[in-house]
């Protein structure tokens, strides 16, 4: 403590701090009474859009905790035209996620190529029996109703890659179609693809 | 007959005040301390912002088992909480709320109140000694050492006011009080308040009960209703200290419209002082034993003596 300071100044400063706190709003979250405002993309529970699942097993293979259980069988569909070939497809029998093992990394959601898995912000599914934390596919399907629409991009974020590629292609198209020779070359424009 | 009814009524009112005011102060502490720490404090008990929290606490304490340690000095152990609490009830009897609104208007009220408040520490001492627990004993000794150090400036500061007013009657002191005494008796007010905090073992002077090092000191072995009595004694102590500070230094019932609103002024001032007690508790960390003694002997006692001299000089000059 410096000698020049008035004795008791530090004490007064302490009193000021506590009094200023008294005039501010408390930061306590009244959780069970007031639901928390979760940030976008909150990872509460994983929802399954069963209709989209093709039983490709990518999620179960990538899962670091081995908490996804998938059972399936093949079914054949009779040919749609006479003399045609029978088509076989996978039918999902069981899809379960054991949330007592899950570490909420979200790799399954990222890896799913058919958009069958989604994050839902719901988090109130604590259970008194650990076996109740294994959500079967009907329960996982129910979580789909709680999946929010994806949040809007930040104002200053770069446009999504798909959009940027499409715009680039469109710009190229319009540049060619307005050439002075007047020849319409639009049919040989490459399909918009990322380089 | 009228005298008996009058006495019964006054004692009843004092008793009710003794039961209600500490609870109000306790609830205020819950809420004020919480908000000073950016929390909300009790929110559920009673429905509206946890107003019934202390009632719920009381019910809980009453339900608990009343344990007396096997090696404890049984009678002393059981008597200690009562002895800690009753002095504050007795002290409250002599403190005037408004002209005529006092339990018993004693000619030597100040002397009586300070003498009775000194008894309170016996509760801690007895509890600490009878518990057969080394932490309790340590706490009791700390309490005794603290009381020895702080009783002197406490009494000196009170004596300064008595000298200024020329009377020991608490009502008389308020009658003689003038607003400029606030300035004249300011050092005395400071010494009285700080020494009073130390006598109540309120943070930052809570070395004797320091829960982090000697596990609540003399109260370690207490459970249930007896522990609740010790707690109640602490809050009753805050009420008595605030009331005494109000009466001695802040002019008691004096204020605008004090013919009708005197009691309100006293209560307002008491709660203002109680608020400061809570505020100080929230703000400052605990003193160490040597810091406690140094504060008492090197700051409070000299300031109190200077105040006494100042009071004497001004009183003679007037």
Give a written overview of the molecule.
Chain B: One of its GO terms (cellular component) is plasma membrane. The complex is a heterodimer of chains A (195) and B (318). With 195 residues, chain A is of the alpha+beta class. Chain A has helices spanning 9-23, 58-62, 107-111, 137-143, 161-177; strands spanning 45-48, 68-77, 87-98, 117-120, 134-135. In chain A, the strands form 2 sheets. A 3-stranded antiparallel beta sheet of chain A has the order 2-3-5. Chain A has a two-stranded antiparallel sheet with strand order 1-4. Mean pLDDT of chain A is 84; it is low at 186-195. Chain B is mainly alpha-helical. Chain B has one domain (2-317). Helices cover 72% and strands 0% of the residues of chain B. Chain B is built from 12 helices and no strands. The model of chain B has no long low-confidence stretch (mean pLDDT 86). Classes of the chains: A alpha+beta (195), B mainly alpha (318). The interface between A and B is medium-sized, with 13 and 14 residues.
SSE blueprint and pairings:
The complex is a heterodimer of chains A (195) and B (318).
Chain A: H1 9-23, E1 45-48, H2 58-62, E2 68-77, E3 87-98, H3 107-111, E4 117-120, E5 134-135, H4 137-143, H5 161-177
Antiparallel strand pairs in A: 1-4, 2-3, 3-5
Chain B: H1 2-36, H2 53-63, H3 74-93, H4 109-130, H5 134-165, H6 170-176, H7 181-184, H8 186-199, H9 211-214, H10 224-249, H11 258-283, H12 289-317
Helix pairs in contact in B: 1-3, 1-10, 1-11, 2-10, 3-4, 3-10, 4-5, 5-6, 5-8, 5-12, 8-10, 8-12, 10-11
